[in-house]
């Protein structure tokens, strides 16, 4: 039993695979040392991919369906969460992900409500159409100020919420995500299979990890890589899976790249240019021996994959996308008013042009190709950046971050 008697309810829309779900799990484990923690989820259709050991309560309300079904289910979620809060005598309900935030706010009773915002709202390419308009113009501006506190995972989300959605500045505080530094370092030392090691020995390896989705924007990276290997030997390794898998493979083949697919049954050899390894229980063992970690995201929150690669001591080459990469790699600099168009040698890695601007895409891809080429030819610089990357990640240990979370929750409870 935790030493404190306050009841903390953690709410998320689902417990499937994803960065927010991993953060939710970590919060659940750590906050249970200070409070009585219960997890709540809309439904368990996607399973519980990151079980914490704490009690999980499902509201058992399905998602999807027609617009009428969605409205009806939205109402059911609000009603059932309100009842659950009463039954558990909830003191604070902390919600993760936007759908859960709305349900948390609309079910508010005497308990305190805290929102954890995981990503950019203004730049989220998934917020589109009529529903996107409703979220941006009605729900966020109308509801977010009802929260007792809003915790953002990146400093650059705050001005978005203030200027874009009218959130009161005093409601906001930034607490970055934390990383299991020692655990990741240990896992990264796990040996590759002889076949995998042969690939890494055959040429410098660029590695990227994350879901294969619109947000991660991996397709233009393939173009830069195709140009790179005309100038020097290199391999590109993808760790992760997602709905754009087939599109990315098709694009790579169209570029004349030789593609290995882990699920195809093909034998892993050094003859390929691009390796799609799929989901891996231990992605870190594929990251640590790489020459560079490449991260072409169109938008982020506070990117876990980038931080994990830096813990592995791999030099990071990342888009200067909203939000997170600049905060991690160049914490003493302000976010530029216009997107950068040249490589920026930051304090802890390389910040690069985004690869989602049609008018400048060809030029931006050439910047990527040239930067990767220069870094692959400079062993000393890669070693320097790799050491700085791992040093930087000591700022995001569990202990440092959760002292901030407990402080915020105690402040909210005292009101």
UniProtKB/TrEMBL annotation:
The UniProt record lists the keyword Electron transport: no
Transmembrane annotation, as ranges: none
Give the Gene Ontology MF terms in alphabetical order: glycosyltransferase activity
Question: In the record, which residues are listed under signal peptide?
Answer: none
Origin, by domain of life?
Bacteria
Instruction: Provide this UniProt record's keywords sorted from A to Z.
Output: Transferase
Domain Glycosyltransferase subfamily 4-like N-terminal, by residue range, is 18-180
Protein name, entry field? Glycosyltransferase involved in cell wall bisynthesis
> Which species is the source of this protein?
Hymenobacter psychrophilus
